[in-house]
Amino acid sequence: RTVYLNGDYLPEEDAKISIFDRSFLMADGVYEVTSVLGGKLIDFAGHSKRLERSLSELEMQKPDAFDDLLEIHRELVRLNDIDEGMIYLQVSRGSAGDRDFTYPSADVKPTLVLFTQSKPNLADNPVAKIGIKVISIEDQRWGRRDIKTVQLLYPSMGKMMAKAAGCDDAWMVEDGAVTEGTSNNAYIVKGNTIITRHLGTEILHGITRAAVLRFALEAQMKVEERPFTIQEAQDADEAFITSASTFVMPVVEIDGAAIGTGNPGPVAARLREIYLEESRNAAL
Ligand code: PMP
Fold it and tell me: Is the model's pTM score more than 0.90?
């Protein structure tokens, strides 16, 4: 696999960064995951805008190559012959060559890394036909979840707790309300209404979320952006998640309780279809 590191396209085994890099020592880095369908990038503009915001919220420099990111993504897709899959991008604050809590001076350049992951059947994912099962766990992450940092230990622990319970993912709960999934936004459906938590510092502002809510409104569905409880979710007609790598994925069970019929519902299926079609049409 060919990867990108600070201006160079390299075989993955030759791409090396310093042990003092702040993403390694302090999780001082931000990232984006963009999916690829038919060799083209989905929602590239949204991911690039959110990256810019994450960098700015952390007072991290933009990499010199920021304006070339579309070209770099495309070049990696070409070099690795990706038809369906993902591109991972990470920017870290770099390092002045020692361990120090204070940020390095402005002449220290950020580290920019990109790599591809081929995933045949990303769009035609068989899991979308059966749905996933989730457990609920307490949300123990830090308070700035709107910044997409590489601090993913708690989400990782959540996934492990889900696996140990025979489930696929965990929905995190804070002050009695669902925030989001470990790596996705969470939704429930009641009748013609889609309910998902409002934006704020408590959740990541999903790029897929923004698109799906727009398509839902265009399809004459109602959208309520507000907190909801696990109880309300268990009593809902349907539930689903969204993310760049799962698109729209039905949730059929929460903490052992079947949602609706216990099978993927029509609203999630329709939104998945619309999202895939619209995104392919707009792909870069
Ligand atoms: N919430 C969290 C915590 C995430 O990690 C992700 C995916 N990175 C999302 C939501 C979904 O965001 P997006 O639709 O931009 O992939």
Answer: yes
Amino acid at 73: H
Question: Residue 227: which pLDDT band, with cuts at 50, 70 and 90?
Answer: very high
- Please give all residues whose beta carbon lies within 6 A of any atom in ligand 1, as ranges: 33, 180, 183-185, 204, 206-209, 242-244
Q: Which of 79, 81, 98, 84 is nearest to 18 (CA)?
A: 98
What type of residue is 36? Answer: V
Nearest alpha carbon, ligand 1 atom 12 = 206
The residues with which 87 forms a beta bridge, in sequence order, are 34, 116
Q: 127-282 maps to which CATH number?
A: 3.20.10.10
Q: Are 213 and 268 in contact (CB under 8 A)?
A: no
Q: Residue 148 catalytic?
A: yes
Q: What are phi and psi of 243, to 5 degrees?
A: -165, 165
pLDDT per residue over 111-162, tens digit each?
Answer: 999 999 999 999 999 999 999 999 999 999 999 999 999 999 999 999 999 9
Rounded CA-CA distance 216/223 in Å is 7
Topology (CATH) of 2-118: D-amino Acid Aminotransferase; Chain A, domain 1 (3.30.470)
Set 119, 148, 163, 222: catalytic member: 148
